[in-house]
Amino acid sequence: MNAEIIAVGSELTTGAKLDTNSQWLSLELAAVGITVDYQTTVADDREAMNAVLRCAVDRCDVVLITGGLGPTLDDLTRYSLADVMRVELMLHEPSLEFIKSLFARRNINMPERNVVQAKFPQGSEPITNPRGTAPGIWAEIPRAGHARPCLVAAMPGVPSEMKRMFLKEVLSRLPGGNRVIRYARIHCFGLGESAAEEMLGELTARGRDPEVGITVHEATITLRIVAAGETAEACAAKIEATRALIRERMGKYVFGEEDQELQHVVVSRLGERHATLSTAEAGTGGLMAHWLTEVPGFESCFSGGLIVPSDASKIDLLGVDRNLISRVGANSEEVAGAMALGCRERFGSDFALSVTECPRFEAEAPAGEAPFAFIALAGADLLKVRKHMLVGDPAIAKSRAVKAALDMLRRQLM
C-alpha cells in the first residue's frame, strides 16, 4: 500500500512557510507500514489542485491532504475534491451547528463565510475537529482499473489540528500496510561525507536491507538506518545489527543517536564524572554557552561562559597577557591556550574550552590560506590547542567551530 501527501498553500510554494506536516505524516504512515511514494506541494490554485489530486488518486492507495479547508476565497481543497469526485458540495447541518457553537462560546458572531466549512462533497464524510473551525473530509474515490478505491483524507493545515485529527480520526480508517518500517539515526563528527561513506563500505549500497543513508548538517554527519519487515521486532533486529557495524567502522567519530547533539553528550559525560566546564568565546558570540544551557541538567556541570570579542576583554576578564596578544595576535595558538587557562582559573572549573576569532571572509585570512580559528581545551595538567580551518559555507562557520571544540572535550572524556 502506497501513499501521497499533498500540502496545499501558496505560502508553501513561495517559500514563505516551511511544510513540516508532510514530514510528520510520512513518519506516521511508515510506522504502520504505508510507504509514502510522493510528497507534493501545490499553490492555492483550483486548476493546479485538480491536476495534482487526479494524479495522486490514480497512482496511490492513500492520499492525505493538509491545508485549504478554511473559510476564505483561497481555501479551495473542498472544491477541488468535489471537482475530482464530479459531485456537488452539500451542506452538513451538524457540522454547521458545531461551527456556530464554537463562535458562540467565544461571544463572536459567526461570519457568513464560515458556512462553507460545513459543506462537503456529496458522498464524503466530515471528520470532526474539536480544536478548530475546519472539519476534515474523508472520501473513498473509485479508480478505473483498480479493485480498491483511493482513500482520501483532507485535514487542516494547522499542525496541532492536523496531528490530532490524523491520530484520533484518520489513522483508524487506514488499513494496515503489509510491512512495518522503523528508523534509527546515528550521528558522527570530525570527518567529511565522502570519508564516512568510504569507511562504511557496502553498508551504504543501494538496495541493502536495512538501508543506510548519509546526510550532513552543519558538519554533523547523520547515518539514517531504514529497516522494513513483517514485525517491529524483525526491524529492530536488523537495525541493531547494522548499528553495531556502523559503530565498529566509524569508531571515535560516532558521538550520539536520535536527537542527541554534541552538547547533550558533553553534559552527560561531565555529569557522570561530576566534572565542571566553563567557556570563553571570541568569534562565536556565546554560541557554545547557549547550546550548553539548552541541555536539561546543564546547571550541574556548566560553571559559566564569557564572550571576549576584544583584546581588552581577553585581558581584563581572562587575564591574557597584553604583550602576548601584541606579539602573536589574538587569533593564535598561544592566545587560545591562554584564554582556556584563564577561563578555567576564573570559574574554578575542571575543564575550560576556548574559541578565538572566526574571520568572516576569506579576505581576512592570510594570502593563499583559508580562514581559521583556534580552539583550546584546558584541564588539570592538560592543555590542548588545535587549529580549526573555517572551510565550507561561511554561514555555518561559528557552529562548526563550536562543534569542533565540544568534540575535543568529548574525546577527552571518552
What radius of gyration results from the CA coordinates?
28 Å
SS summary, helix count: 14
Q: How far is the first residue's CA from the last residue's CA?
A: 46 Å
Low-confidence stretches: none
* Proportion of strand residues: 15-25%
Name the helicity range: 25-40%
The SS-based structural class is: alpha/beta
| Biggest sheet: strand arrangement | 2-1-3-8-7-6
- Oligomeric form of this entry? single chain
Q: Mind summarizing the main beta sheet?
A: 6 strands, mixed
What's the mean pLDDT score? 92
State the total count of DSSP E strands: 17
Globally, the shape reads elongated
Would you summarize the structure shown here?
It contains 14 helices and 17 strands.
Structure description:
It contains 14 helices and 17 strands. The protein is of the alpha/beta class and about 425 residues long. It has a six-stranded mixed beta sheet, with helices on both faces. Strands 14-13-15-16-17 form a five-stranded mixed beta sheet, with helices on both faces. α3 (about 45-60) crosses α4. The radius of gyration is 28 Å and the shape is elongated. The two termini are about 45 Å apart. The model has no long low-confidence stretch (mean pLDDT about 90).
